[in-house]
Amino acid sequence: MLADVQQAQRDGRLGFLVGAGLSAAVGLPGWNAFNTALCDHAFSRHSPDSGGSPAGRRELSRAYLDQLQGQSLVAVDLIRRRTGSDFHVVVRQALYERKELQKFEPTEVHHALCRMAVEAQPPFPCVHTTNYDDLLELALSSVAGRRAAPVHHGRRHWSDGPRVVHLHGYFPFDPPPAAQKARLARDLILSDLDYSRLSNDHGAWTNRELLALLDSRSVLIVGMSLTDPNVRRLFAYLSDRPRNANDGPQHYVVLLHHQAEGESPQASEAAHLLDEDEHDFWKARGVKILRLQSWDRLNYLLRRIRFPDAIWDRRHRELRIAWARHTYGAAPFGDAALQALGTDALARQAGLGGRLELNLFLPLLDGSYRRAFSSIPGRASEAPRPFVPQHDRGVIPEVEAALTLGQPIHRNEVKGATPPPGQPPFGTWYKSLVSVPFFDDAAGGIPVAVIQLCSSEKQLRDELDAARLAQLKDYLREVVRQTCALMRTARPAPRPSDDRRLQKRREADQPS
User: Fold this and answer.
1) What is the CATH number of domain 309-490?
2) Which of 171, 443, 445, 501 is the most buried (most CB within 10 A)?
3) Does the pTM of the predicted model rise above 0.85?
4) Please, what CATH class does the domain formed by 2-25+102-305 belong to?
5) What contacts 60, CB < 8 A, 6 or more positions away?
6) How far is CA 3 from CA 119, 222, 248, 255, 305, in A?
């Protein structure tokens, strides 16, 4: 099945439909959390006890939803009526004023999907989404090198440039003028009445756009569980139309394997049966399921669609060299002053206990990697740990796995590992490792560097729940950014002799 998606991408036949799962990775709410937050903020502004405590208002909104017996789509209609002209304020609060949202910027997966759209032949720099936010616009603008335009019900103008089609409405992070915010909020598809109107109007703009996409391209659906009622209805409509056996494009959706809730044999069997039943149900509607064990593997799946294994090592080498040349060039990693800067940048607290060491592995201009800097003075010079990554083997397994898979790699009980030839042994105090990749977003979320945290704590992984791991990843990636920025400022200017040699070479290249 993966080969079919790869071929559709190479042929320029692949379209993209993105759901809320991609936005959730940066801290935006899923469907249920969004509806709950709408109620919270609505009652904070428009309820008899609006002067009460935040905890009391949250309890009121939970009780309100309980009264509706889980009919959250109906709740949105009622909240719209209650808040009136303030509805756009409540929408913004529910979407963006959240403690989970530390910073509003696209992930490597946003960039990977957008790069795939830009690289299509013929070019089709377009992504469709049911999301309201503008994360995809930011990513598509980055990889396309020009501003991506949002297309939605209130702005249907098409252009030849990069664009994001918001099928269920558009509500960007940076607030537009108040009148425009109110109109955008009114146009959002998010309530029971909104979906009823769509189901009764096949000619609605949203339905026309989605049907045109599904009828003209093989579509890769990402971040969507296929529970959206309008999307399900349109797939059913397409599959029920009279057609030849092989008529119409094949579609693909990325879903997680269902996990057993509990340890009983019945729980495991139920998860297995649900995987099977979903597979058969959607196959009959022209949709094949690509299963993942965890969302961490999503970027790896997209990379394999874009670069089959047979060409990955060569293309990765080209991309990491281009990133290194642009970021720091031929940096003299052996220079004592530069090493001191790197050690100072890495020698900071990561908020974890025990003895810690941070190591930054960077690509060189010949395509190889080395430990460029360490938080321990002199460590990177004494043991640079050089290697050339290959997807089917590893000299420093956890670092190379992070580069290949594009996800954090954990390793406990570090014993018996063999260092690269001619290198001193690994630290005997290492008890656990976390290797976090750093991505070249403009290249499409390609992992180009790895920062590794070595700890004396055996159970480091047990200390890192999902929230703390997300914080650690952000911290380590920010360390990479700061270290590379230091390298750019410390990069020496070309010497006059270099300029003269370059001028002679240019003169020699001129035609006589």
Assistant:
1) 3.30.450.40
2) 445
3) yes
4) alpha beta
5) 43, 47, 49, 52
6) 18, 17, 18, 18, 8
